[in-house]
Structure formats: structure tokens, C-alpha cells
Amino acid sequence: MAAEARAQESVIVAHGLTKRFGDLVAVDHLDLDVRRAEIYGFLGPNGCGKSTTIRMLCGLLRPSEGEVSVLGQALPRGAETVKRAIGYMTQKFSLYEDLSVRQNLEFLAAVHGLRGASARARLEEMYARYHLGELKERLAGTLSGGQKQRLALAGAVLHEPELLLLDEPTSAVDPQSRRDFWDALFDLAEAGTTLLVSTHYMDEAERCHRLAILDRGRLVADGSPQRLMADLPGSTFRVDCGQPRRVQLALAREAHVLGVAQIGSSLRVLTDRRDGADWLRERVRAIDADAEVEAVAANLEDVFVAATRKSAVEAAA
Amino acid sequence: MSLARLLAVVRKELVQLGRDRLTFAMIVGIPTLQLLLFGFAINLDIRHLPAAVLDQANTMHSRELVAELASSQVLDFRRVVAAPQEIDAAMRRGEISVAVVIPQDFETRLARPDRPAWQVVVDGSDQSVQAAARQLSAFPLASLDYGAAANRPGTRAVPSVEIVNFYNPERRAPINTVPGLIGVILAMTMVIFTAMAIVRERERGNMEMLIATPLSPFELTIGKVLPYVGIGLVQVTLILLLGELVFDVPVRGSLLEVYLAAIVYIAAMLSLGVFISTLADSQFQAMQMAFFTFLPQILLSGFMFPYDGMPRAAQWLAEIFPLTHFLRLIRGIMLRDAALGEMWHELAALAAFVVVMLSVAVLRFRKRLD
Ligand SMILES: Nc1ncnc2c1ncn2[C@@H]1O[C@H](COP(=O)(O)OP(=O)(O)OP(=O)(O)O)[C@@H](O)[C@H]1O
Ligand SMILES: [Mg+2]
Known about the structure:
heterodimer, A: alpha/beta, Rossmann fold, Alpha-Beta Plaits, 2 domains, six-stranded mixed sheet, 40% helix, B: alpha/beta, abc type-2 transporter like fold, five-stranded mixed sheet, 8% strand, binds adenosine-5'-triphosphate, binds magnesium ion
């Protein structure tokens, strides 16, 4: 029960977190609550403020407005204390390309105050866990995308941080490596590390315990992926028809259609109408008589489309 | 402040330096090249300088003198002129760089020990020309033996030839240039190396990772800069050695004091580099800014032009530059056998520069990205 209480403990709490760059509002009044040992996802398109938020949480950027505390420390005051207890994996590879894998990790170990036998033991553990043993003497700049990513992860967890912030860790990595990487993240979460992962991959977002969807700096939805899908205000349909492209263009103009995407020869349509099926069948048949409409289960992409669409409408209003 | 973290940065920097062939080549190449270029430009045995002759005496002796000068091949008489103004004009146009002037009273002057008998007018804007003219003055001229013999050789108070230096009244020799070059080379390499090394971390994105660690700005800066103190001392040694071996430039004062002065000066240059790194966004910008600090130093410090001849405002400005103070220190120690203690105020000026620059730099260096 003590463990349960621990699990409920908040690691990151933010209220109205805002960052402005001149006139641009990169992060707009964000509220966050990340709990211990969970994998929390940031899902959002390019430029929605994922990196900027993570940088503020690491103490690298000062918030323009709002309050944020990380591991019980109010930022920016407690930034230096926080830096000892977090690991940060930057979006762009930021270890030294002209140092070897070993030299990079030894440097980080020394910077984090690991010394002597315990440092050596920890490095060996890292080589083994992230399959870096063979690559030890290779220059980091000569590694492949997946190898670099494993090195960067090793560098970020070397000092056993309580909180790990990963900024789009799996871009530039093949699907198999991505799966392996996520296994490594689950291992870390199981060991008690809190993880915050930004991504724009739906399948990755779906693996998170909880999720925040960001759009143009604003939090447009949050909760567990299952919860978000269940709460989707609307429904999703598959439309099979002979002229999918024509139907798509026509539907896209409908106010009640939140999103249409072509998948193979069929269309995936998201509407915000409760009586979606009948309404949609009528609309579609007016364009293409042979169309079949069938309700399908919502996925995260639908949640994402609905949430961003809603925020766009609100912004316009 | 943790020594372990500081040393970690130093070690990392050294490994990176060891792998960086270009920087390595620059560390050795820049001093060697500059020293040899500057040194030999002065020492070079130059021949066939375009020259004019103004023979106002037109006696047997004067004609013999001109013939002898011509046969020496140092001068190539392109023109015979009739008036001093023509020399002026021809030199301004760059047609000639040397003019031999033999005055009307050449014969009487030859016989008198207190006045030079003839003149060599030199385009002083060209260092190699000056040097060649100096050779002329030492040239054994048979035609002058007559006059000299008539006047008991070896007792002339004034050499028979007078060299008039146009455009550059202060004559230089390697002996004066080499100590100065230590300062100039360090002003160039130290500032560029440090500024670029620090900006490189930002440009390549390493800084974002570093700021998220417990590493403090002080540890990072000092750790990155320390290896360059060693490199600076290697450069000093290289210049001293080459100066001694190739140009016979002596260290008349204490060698230890040369190095002491050099260390304080290197610290000044490094802190300037650190300051520049807080202003520059890219390595290219850092390089430009480094040159921006380098040029006025070279021009105003007394390396190129004599300090005493500069306008008051320029002199004041020069007092800000570390190179000005270092030149006085190094010339004093190396050439005049002065003690560091006698020039403590120059050392204090350098130390003040370090303190001010580093304070400003550390204040500007925020451990944040914005
Ligand atoms: N230092 C900065 N100065 C000015 N604008 C910035 C700065 N950093 C980010 N921005 C702007 O803030 C917005 C959010 O950027 P951010 O990098 O946080 O997005 P992101 O969600 O990480 O995008 P991506 O998926 O492309 O990495 C963008 O419009 C970006 O141009
Ligand atoms: Mg980003």
C-alpha cells in the first residue's frame, strides 16, 4: 500500500505553464500532472511545443508565466537540484560525435559524480543492457541511428535518474529498434523511473500510461489512451466506395465531419454526430451510390484529429 | 565547484583536441609560418630594387659610386632624375622604392667626418626594402676608399651614407619583431581557439545536454579553457626556439619571467575568447569577432607602428588592449633584461583585464538556453 501511495505521488505538476518567444506563444497555459513510475506521453504535430515544454521542465528555459514543480522543486529556483535527479535525452543527438562510445559515457559518469569501481560497474551494465559492448571504441559520429539512440539513452540513465525526459527518442529508428527501445522504457518504468516521452507516432502514444495531446502550444486532451478513445465525442466509420477520392473531397467540406483519411481503397471518417451512421450513409450515397458505411472502433488518431479540430474551432470563435 | 567535474571536462577536451588534426596543425603551423614570414621578410637578401639616382655632384667619385652600386645588383637604376621632387613623385607612384641622392658638395662632405656624404631614400612602407637599404650602408664601396682614406679610415663619427626612411620612421629587425610576434600569435590563436571551442558545443547541440547535467558554467568554461593554457605555452616555446635558432634572437632577461608574463597574457586572451563565445551564435561568427579584436590590437599596440607616434586617443585605446602591455613586458624582459617586478603595473593591467572579462563572461553565460 506504501507502493500504491508512492505511485500516486506527483513528479511533475504544472499550472498555466507558458512560454513566449517574442509574439509567438510556443506553450500556452499548460496544466500537467505526471505521477511517479508512469510513462507519460506528449503527442502533437511539429512545432506544437513539445520540446519547449520539456526544456522548461529540465530548467533549460525559463517559463514566461505559470508555475511548475519537478520532483518537489519549484522551477526555476530549484533547477540545479532537479538537474541531479533527471535524465534528458535531447531530440537531436547531443553527445560528442568525435568521442568514442566509451569516452562519451565516461565523461558523463564523471560529470554526474560517479567514480572508481562503482562507475566502472555502472558502465559495464550500460554496455550490456543497451548492446553497446561491441561498439565501445567506435566514434559516436559513426554509429547508425538506432545505435546512437541506444547510446543517448545509456547516457541519460547512467546516473539512475528518478525522472527521464525523452524528446522524440525514436525518430530516425526502424520499427524493430523502436519496439526494442520501448521495451527498455517499460523496464525503466517498472524499476520506478518516471518517464515523459514526446512523440508524433500514434502507436507509441498508445503505449503510454497516460497522454497529453498538444496542439499549437495548448493541451487539447489528456488521460489514458483507452480513456481518451472511449470518451471520443463522435464516432468513426469505414466507407467503402468506388470513387474514394471524390467522396473524400466532398466530405471534407461537411461541418460535421472532423476528419477523412483514405486508407487503401476505403475511407476512414470521423464525425461528431451521435446518429453518425445514418447521416453519413445518406450523404455518401448522394455522391457515390455504391458506398458501404460501417462503424469501426476509434483509435488514437481519431482522438487526435477530433481534439485538434475542436481547438481550432475554438480558436477561430 | 567540483574538481572531478572540472577534470572530466579537461580530459574530454584533450581527447577531442588530439583528434582534431586541423586545430593541431594550427597550433604548430601558425607560429612557425608567421615567425618565418615576418623574420625572413626582414632578413631576405633582396636584389634588383627599382631605383633612381639624383647625382647633383656629377664628379668622378660620384659616378664611380653609382657604377659600383649598380654592379652590386642590389639596385636597378631605372631613372636618372634632376630634382628631388621627381624622386617623391616616382616613389609615390611605386615606380621606384629606393633613390640614391648625391649632393652637390659630395666631395667636401666625403672629407668631413661629421656629415654623411650621400643619401639613400627608402620606401619605408615596405619592410623588405628597408632591410635591403640597411645592407647598402654596410656595403664595402671601393670608390669611397679614397675619401675615407684621406680622412683616416675608422674614425668617422658618422657613416658615409645616410639612410632616410620614408613612411616608416622606426626601423625594425627580427630582434624587435620576434618578442612582439609571441604576443601577436597568441592574440590570434588563443582567442580564436577558445571562442570556437565553446561556441562549437552550442552549435553542435552538446550544450543542451550539458546544461541538463550538474556541470556548472564555471567548471565548463575553465575546464574547456585550461588545455589552451598549455597550448599557448607550447607556442611560446616554439617561437622562442625558432627565434633563437633561425634569427639569433636572445632572451636577455629571465626565461622564467618570460613564461610568467606569457601565462598572465594567455589568461587575458583566453578570457577574451570566453567573452566572445557568449556573444557569438556560430563558430563563424566567433571567428569574425576574434579577428575584430585582433586587428586593432596589432595596429595600435606598438607592434606595427610606434606607440609614441600615435594620436592621444589611439594611445588611450591601446592601453585597454592586452597586447600593448604584453609587448612592453616581453620586449623589456627579452631585449632589455628588465625584471618583471620593475614592470608590475603592466602585469597588473593584464590581470585586471582577465578579472573584468571573465566576470562579464560568467555573468553572461547563463546555464539556460534562453
Ligand atoms: N528559441 C526559440 N526562439 C523562437 N522560437 C522558438 C524557439 N524554440 C522554439 N520556438 C518556436 O516554438 C514553437 C514550438 O517549438 P518546439 O520545438 O517546442 O516544437 P516541437 O513540438 O518540439 O516540434 P517538433 O516536433 O518539430 O520537434 C515553434 O513554432 C518554434 O518555431
Ligand atoms: Mg521538438
